[in-house]
């Protein structure tokens, strides 16, 4: 029997994604075979496909061909020798980074994320990347507290809408930057919208918050905007930036800005966040936070915004939509027979 996946043989636009067939095999020792139910479509997928990754060690030197796809939800249908972490029939998530655009995934059993079977895979898969970033940026790095004043930069995408939901749940007073066409979603979650194309966000916030902001959560990582946002913080304010800089030279300047902020004596902090620690260091905080997010989803306290869903084999169209800049929320790939698993 065969299964299908998407592969990139050369870097480029969505059109370089090709469908390839592979023979189904038994999982190896300490490995499981997962039937994919849903996969996220995220900005790192685009970066990897284009061959433009700047600083992620996972992407640097990525050999062609490869299968993109940063995170998936699926059901274990076979377990290799020695596997104790999951058994056939159990629902799991995987932070793949590379490899998620596939009907079947083989993965090491010690890197599985337990997922409650009652949760909708389409709504759950954004929690593995976009919501874990939002949750950890807000609660583990910025340590936001109820009543604090926060600015969210890049508030309409998958991570941005997660920040809006989690910020509302945490009792933050939020300002949020996005284009005019996306302001409805910002106000839905209680944020004051700012149009970065036609409004001076720094001037608006200075007028409305003369005492300064407590928190800035920046998902764009553009140096000039970071400088201006950092100046809006009160003493003791915290800024956290995540995402992908425009160039390697800009990344170097951003690192310099981070160092200067730490040495300035202003009492302000600027931190950079990435998910690499999950792969390199301690998984425990991630597993704890995913469990919290699954609980919040099950209780109806959060609900990812799904802009569009495509069959897995239509990943090229899903990528084109994401790159169009018209997406509010998340784009998800789904198994053609997803309904049979629910």
Briefly characterize the structure.
By secondary structure, the chain is an alpha/beta fold. Helix content is 32%, strand content 26%. It has two domains: 2-115 and 305-341, Alpha-Beta Complex (Quinone Oxidoreductase, Chain A, domain 1), CATH 3.90.180.10; 129-276, Rossmann fold (3-Layer(aba) Sandwich), CATH 3.40.50.720.
What's the architecture of the largest domain in CATH terms?
Answer: Alpha-Beta Complex
Please tally the β strands and state the result.
15
CATH superfamily of the largest domain: Medium-chain alcohol dehydrogenases, catalytic domain
Which whole number gives the mean pLDDT?
92
CATH first level of the largest domain: Alpha Beta
Q: Strand-residue fraction?
A: 25-35%
- Helix and strand run: EEEHEEEEHEHEHEHEHEHEHHEHE
Residues in helices, as a percent range: 25-40%
Number of domains: 2
Spans with pLDDT under 50 lasting ≥5 residues?
Answer: 55-60
Please give the radius of gyration in angstroms. Answer: 20 Å
Helical segment count: 10
CATH topology of the largest domain: Quinone Oxidoreductase, Chain A, domain 1
Kindly name the structural category. Answer: alpha/beta
**What's the shape?**
globular
**Largest sheet composition:** 7 strands, mixed
First-to-last CA distance? 24 Å
């Amino acid at each position: 029997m065969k299964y299908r996946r998407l592969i990139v043989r050369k870097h480029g636009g969505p059109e370089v994604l090709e469908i390839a067939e592979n023979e189904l095999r038994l999982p190896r020792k300490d490995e499981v075979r997962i039937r994919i139910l849903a996969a996220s479509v995220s900005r790192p997928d685009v970066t990897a496909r284009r061959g433009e990754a700047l600083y992620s060690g996972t992407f640097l030197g990525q050999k062609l061909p490869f299968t993109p796809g940063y995170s998936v939800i699926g059901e274990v249908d076979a377990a290799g020798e020695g596997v104790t972490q999951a058994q056939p029939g159990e629902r799991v998530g995987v932070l793949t980074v590379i490899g998620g655009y596939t009907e079947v995934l083989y993965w090491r059993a010690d890197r599985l994320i337990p997922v409650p079977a009652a949760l909708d895979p389409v709504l759950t898969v954004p929690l593995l990347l976009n919501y874990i970033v939002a949750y950890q940026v807000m609660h583990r790095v910025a340590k936001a507290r109820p009543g604090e004043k926060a600015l969210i930069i890049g508030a309409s995408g998958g991570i941005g809408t997660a920040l809006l939901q989690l910020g509302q749940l945490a009792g933050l007073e939020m300002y949020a930057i996005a284009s005019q066409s996306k302001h409805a979603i910002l106000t839905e979650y209680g944020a004051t919208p700012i149009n970065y194309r036609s409004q001076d966000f720094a001037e608006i916030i200075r007028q409305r918050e003369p005492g300064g902001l407590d928190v800035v959560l920046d998902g764009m990582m553009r140096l000039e905007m970071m400088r201006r946002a950092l100046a809006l913080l009160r003493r003791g304010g915290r800024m956290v930036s995540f995402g992908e800089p425009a160039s390697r030279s800009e990344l170097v300047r951003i690192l310099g800005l981070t160092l200067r902020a730490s040495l300035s004596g202003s009492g302000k902090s600027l931190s950079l966040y990435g998910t690499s620690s999950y792969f390199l260091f301690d998984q425990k905080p991630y597993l704890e936070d995913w469990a919290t997010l699954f609980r919040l989803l099950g209780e109806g306290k959060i609900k990812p915004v799904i802009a569009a869903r495509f069959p897995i084999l239509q990943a090229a169209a899903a990528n084109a939509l994401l790159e169009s800049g018209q997406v509010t929320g998340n784009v998800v790939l789904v198994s053609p027979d997803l309904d049979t698993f629910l």
